[in-house]
Specification:
mainly alpha, Hormone receptor fold, Rhopdopsin 7-helix transmembrane proteins, 3 domains, two-stranded antiparallel ribbon, about 55% helix, disordered C terminus, GPCR_2_secretin-like, membrane
C-alpha cells in the first residue's frame, strides 16, 4: 500500500533522514490511501473476530485476525530504521489493543528505533516555557562566565606578581581560581561551537526545515573529547570548592594544624580525585552508552557516576560551612567588650557572605531536584538559579578574595607609591642635570642655586632640586614624599 508514492528520503545505515515538511506530506498521502482502501473494502464483517483496518497516525494496518500483527517500519518517518518491524495487538473480541492511559489504540514502534539511531533536535523538544527562556539563560551564562574569566585572570596575575602574598592559603586560592578559569573557558567554548547543543559542525547536518540531525557512522571523537574535558573541568572545579572548604575547616577547627602544614595533599586531592570518577564514566560511555557526543544518554543512571561524588562533596562542604559559622559565633560571643557585642552580628554576617561563594552553598538548594521529574516552571526556576550562580561564582570569589582583600589592596598601594616615587626621582634628576648644564654654560650668572649637600635643619624647607632617589633614606628629605616617616619608607621599599 502506498507503493506508488515517490519517497525522497535519505538512508544512512537503513535509518531514514527526511525533512519535516516532506515527512508530513507523505503521512497525509498514506493516510488518504488508507481511508480510500477502507471505503472500497467490502470484505470486513463486524460479526467476524477480525480487527478492522485502522490508521494509527503513522501507518495503515489492514484487517487482522486475533494476535500480533507486524509490519515493516515506514520509510517516511525521520529516524526510523526500515529494517525493523512495528507491531500491533488484535484482541480475541476483534478490537485492537487500547492503551489505558491515553484511551486509544496503540502501536509498538520500539523495533523502529535502533540503538544508534540519529537523534534530532526536534525529538528533544522542550516545553514552551523552557524554550522561550533559553535565549535569556544563554545571555546570563555568557555574561557571567565572561566576567568570571576576565576577573580571575586579573586576580591570578596580581597574586603571582606580589611575592608577599605567597603563602599556602593563597596558593590554594590560585588553584581554585585556575579551576574556575578552566571551567569558564571550556563552557564558553562548548556552548558557542556546538550546533544546537548537539555536536560540532562536522557531527551534524540540517534538513530543509532547519532541523539539526546528528550524523551517525563515525567515532565523533572530537566532540566526545571536548565534552569529557568539560566534565573534568566542572568536576575538578567542584572538588576545589570542596578542598577550600576542607582546608579552612581544618584550619579553624583543629589546633594541631597550622598554615605551614604541607598543602600538597590538598593539591593532589583537587586535581586527582575527579579522575577517579571521570575516567570510569568515559569507559562506561564508550562501552555501554556510546550515544551522540555523550551530551545525552539512553541510560541516565550512568550520569550518577559523576553526579554522586559531586553531590556528596557539596553536602560535606555544607556541613563544614555550618560548623565554621558555629566556631566563629562562639569566638565572637566569648568577647565581653562593648564593641565586640555591638559588631558581633555584623562580623558574623560578613563572614557568612564571604563563605557562601567559597563553599558553594548555593549548590545545596537544588541539588536534590531531578529536572525530568518536576514541572516546566520549576525547571525554569532551577535553570535560572543554577545558571546564574554557576556562571557568576568565580567572579564573586575573585572579588572577595583578591580585589577586596586588604592584603592585596595594601600591596597594590605600595606598588603604586613606589612607582610615583621613582617617577618623581627621575624627574628631579633630569631637572638637576638641566640646571647643572645651564650653570656650566652661563658663567655670567654666578649665583645659581644648587643642591645643598648639608643636612636640613629643623623647620628648614627642603631643597626641591635635591635628588629624591639619593636622599630617600635620609630624614632630611622626608618632606619630599609627603612627610612620611622612616618606618613607612622602609616598609615601602622592603
Amino acid at each position: 500500500m502506498g507503493s506508488n508514492l515517490k519517497i525522497a528520503t535519505f538512508l544512512k545505515e537503513n535509518v531514514v533522514q527526511i525533512g519535516r515538511q516532506q515527512q508530513m506530506e507523505l503521512i497525509y498521502q498514506h493516510n488518504a490511501d488508507c481511508l480510500q482502501t477502507s471505503v472500497f473494502n467490502d470484505s470486513y464483517n463486524e460479526s467476524d473476530s477480525r480487527c478492522a483496518q485502522v490508521w494509527d497516525g503513522v501507518m495503515c494496518w489492514a484487517e487482522s485476525l486475533p494476535g500480533i500483527s507486524h509490519q515493516e517500519c515506514p520509510n517516511y518517518i525521520n529516524g526510523f530504521n526500515i529494517s525493523g518491524f512495528a507491531s500491533r495487538l488484535c484482541g480475541e473480541n476483534g478490537e485492537w489493543f487500547v492503551y489505558q492511559e491515553k484511551n486509544s489504540s496503540w502501536t509498538n514502534f520500539t523495533g523502529c528505533f535502533p540503538t544508534n539511531r540519529p537523534v534530532l533536535l526536534s525529538t528533544m523538544k522542550l516545553h514552551d516555557v523552557i524554550q522561550e527562556n533559553i535565549p535569556k539563560m544563554h545571555t546570563i551564562m555568557n555574561v557571567g562566565y565572561g566576567l568570571t574569566l576576565c576577573s580571575l585572570l586579573a586576580a591570578v596575575v596580581i597574586m603571582c606578581y606580589f611575592r608577599r602574598l605567597r603563602c599556602p592559603r593563597t596558593t590554594l586560592h590560585l588553584h581554585l581560581f585556575t579551576s574556575f578559569i578552566l571551567r569558564a573557558s571550556i563552557t564558553l567554548l562548548k556552548e558557542n561551537i556546538f550546533v544546537g547543543g548537539v555536536g560540532l559542525k562536522s557531527d551534524v547536518s540540517k534538513d530543509d526545515s532547519g532541523t539539526v540531525i546528528f550524523i551517525e557512522g563515525d567515532t565523533h571523537w572530537q566532540c566526545k573529547l571536548l565534552l569529557s574535558m568539560s566534565i573534568y573541568c566542572i568536576t575538578s572545579n567542584c572538588m576545589w570548592v570542596f578542598v577550600e572548604g576542607l582546608y579552612l575547616h581544618v584550619l579553624v577547627s583543629m589546633a594541631v594544624f597550622t598554615e605551614k602544614t604541607s598543602i600538597k595533599p590538598y593539591i593532589l586531592l583537587g586535581w586527582g580525585l575527579p579522575l577517579l570518577f571521570v575516567v570510569p564514566w568515559v569507559v562506561v560511555r564508550v562501552t555501554r552508552d556510546d550515544v551522540m557526543c555523550w551530551n545525552t544518554s539512553s541510560k541516565p543512571e550512568f550520569l550518577w557516576i559523576v553526579r554522586a561524588p559531586i553531590t556528596l562533596a557539596m553536602v560535606v562542604n555544607f556541613i563544614f560551612f555550618v560548623n565554621i559559622l558555629r566556631v566563629l559565633f562562639t569566638k565572637l560571643a566569648a568577647s565581653n567588650s562593648q564593641q565586640s557585642r555591638r559588631y558581633r552580628y555584623r562580623k558574623l554576617a560578613k563572614s557568612t557572605m564571604v563563605l557562601i561563594p567559597l563553599f558553594g552553598v548555593h549548590y545545596i538548594v537544588f541539588i536534590w531536584i531531578e529536572p525530568s521529574q518536576v514541572s516546566a516552571h520549576i525547571q525554569v526556576a532551577w535553570l535560572y538559579f543554577e545558571m546564574t550562580f554557576n556562571s557568576f561564582q568565580g567572579f564573586f570569589i575573585a572579588l572577595l578574595f583578591c580585589f577586596l582583600n586588604e592584603e592585596v589592596q595594601t600591596e597594590i598601594k605600595k606598588s603604586w607609591m613606589r612607582y610615583k616615587l621613582h617617577r618623581m626621582s627621575w624627574q628631579s634628576s633630569t631637572h638637576r642635570l638641566n640646571i647643572q648644564s645651564n650653570t656650566a654654560s652661563s658663567i655670567s650668572h654666578p649665583k645659581v642655586r644648587t643642591c645643598n649637600p648639608k643636612p636640613l635643619t629643623s623647620g628648614r624647607e627642603s631643597d626641591p632640586l635635591c635628588s629624591i632617589s639619593k636622599n630617600i633614606e635620609e630624614p632630611r628629605c622626608a618632606s619630599l614624599i609627603g612627610q612620611k616617616s622612616n618606618q613607612e619608607i622602609s616598609e615601602l621599599f622592603g
